[in-house]
Amino acid sequence: MTGGPLRVLIADDDDLMRAGLRAVLSSDDTIEVVGEAADGLEAVTLARDTAPDVVLMDVRMPRRDGIAATRELGEAVPAARVLILTTFEDDDYVFGALSAGASGFLLKRTRPEQLIEAIHTIAAGDSLLSPSVTRTVIDQMAAAAPPDPAAAQRLRGLTARERDVLMLVARGLSNAEIAVELYVEESTVKTHMKRILAKLDLRDRAQAVIVAYETGLIRPGLAR
Fold first, then answer.
1. Hey, what CATH class is 6-128 in?
2. Which of 10, 49, 103, 104 has minimal Cβ neighbours within 10 Å of its Cβ?
């Protein structure tokens, strides 16, 4: 992440949406809009040129959709973090976007202050996942892809408590909620999460949720 304002790239095929997002972000001096893209292909090209900290990525776009663009960005500009902009109608795409490397999602109708907060959250290295998406969309998509027994070997290096934390993360609980569930301090949960990410070579909480499903640590229907 840069030392100055957060560099943000907007990718959306709706001209009015891009204009609205730029207006909101330009009103905050902690954020600099470094470019606008009308499709996924242009988003990847601009990201290479502008090196953004965060890319606000629509899902349904021409030439290259947001999921494909997110996957390509992970290789072309690995430092850029992707925040998916979605509507309820796009929920079926959320799991694919997270699997492609997105760090979270945000509903397009969110309030301006929430958008700015979300950008800072993503840029700081955290992920943005709501319990509702964890419990429905990811659960639904995981049902179509049974756990891989070989993938479960990835969890061998985790302690019992780290497995507990990972399972609760996959159920959609926040750090504060996990702390209550396990009768520990929130700072302890954060420490466990850092170790889980390091041991599993994961970038953020979003990837941890995917791994929890892929390894069978949590099964569809149990994310409640």
1. alpha beta
2. 49
